[in-house]
Amino acid sequence: MTKRFGAVRAVDDLSLDIPAGQTVALLGPNGAGKSTGIRLLLGLLAADSGTVRVFGGAPETAIRSGRLAAMPQEGGLVSRTTVGELLGFVSGTYRAPLPLREVMAVAGLEELAGRRVERLSGGQAQRLRFALALAGDPELILLDEPTAALDVRARREFWESMRAFAARGRTVLFSTHYLEEADEYADRVVVIDRGRIVADGTSREIKRLVSLTTVSVTVSAPETAWLELLPGVTSVESRGERAHLRTRDADATVLALAEAGAVRDLEVVPAALEDAFIALTGADA
Ligand SMILES: Nc1ncnc2c1ncn2[C@@H]1O[C@H](COP(=O)(O)OP(=O)(O)OP(=O)(O)O)[C@@H](O)[C@H]1O
């Protein structure tokens, strides 16, 4: 599907199939098109071309039946009620809600049922928004940068809730520009940049795709030019006796080093997802 805003192609011929049960991270720098993509999936925006199907139908139908839910980034909470009252009210509007006790447990709100909404911390409020999205027992949930405003601890607690939900066999799509979040919490990482998918796979595959593994060895001879000729090696950096080889095929490089009898203090460090991300999008994340 494609969505333009004036001259900007916010989403550019993007095609994504999400099987049930997957946790997918939509990873991309600012302005990559993540929010636009999610709003298209929710039917909040109409695509200029292409179609969105959720469970074989229009997003509106999936939302009305409670099978699709989303969590707002902010707002959406009524004050002067308690957590329990608000959840109870929202739950009552669904035909087949998730039992309240389960909603509370998944979102980690058991201790806060009697707390007034306006007294919640940022992290607790975000877990309440998550709980509200869970109330109708959706099969698919869309989270647009759910942890954007949270500190490290609240972020971890939020992801624990998300995991508890995913563990019920549910499907989750979340957007983030936190590389570690995509790495740690998603089964699949879809990297988007300027509205297009630039990579799609497990975080392991994405790291391998840009193959930035570094193989380091101690070399006694000052001459290191031969290292550049080893299989897989793209560049060599020498610091004193230490040579750092960037390679797209660590296995082949290490094997060749071994054949040359040059394996001393061997160290193999795979690329961080951050490096992969920068290499893929050219973004300074
Ligand atoms: N309502 C709008 N009117 C005009 N341009 C828009 C509108 N919404 C988004 N855009 C533009 O579309 C592009 C994609 O924006 P989008 O918000 O989808 O990106 P994003 O990946 O969610 O970014 P962020 O991480 O900053 O939230 C950007 O260039 C943005 O300026």
UniProtKB/TrEMBL annotation:
Q: Where in the cell is it found?
A: Cell membrane
One Pfam family matching this protein: DrrA1-3_C
Q: Does the keyword Nucleotide-binding apply?
A: yes
Subcellular location, principal: membrane
Q: How does it sit in the membrane?
A: Peripheral membrane protein
Checking SMART domains in the record gives:
AAA
Q: Mind telling me which PROSITE patterns this protein's record contains?
A: ABC_TRANSPORTER_1, ABC_TRANSPORTER_2
Task: List the Gene3D superfamilies hit by this protein, alphabetically.
Answer: P-loop containing nucleotide triphosphate hydrolases
What keywords is this UniProt entry annotated with? Antibiotic resistance, ATP-binding, Nucleotide-binding, Transport
One MF term from GO for this chain?
ATP binding
Q: Which residues cross the membrane?
A: none
**Annotated InterPro entries:** AAA+_ATPase (IPR003593), ABC_transporter-like_ATP-bd (IPR003439), ABC_transporter-like_CS (IPR017871), ABC_transporter_ATP-binding (IPR050763), DrrA1/2-like_C (IPR025302), P-loop_NTPase (IPR027417)
Q: What are the ABC transporter domain coordinates in residue numbering?
A: 1-219
The protein's name in its UniProt record: ATP-binding cassette domain-containing protein
Q: Which organism is it from?
A: Streptosporangium amethystogenes subsp. fukuiense
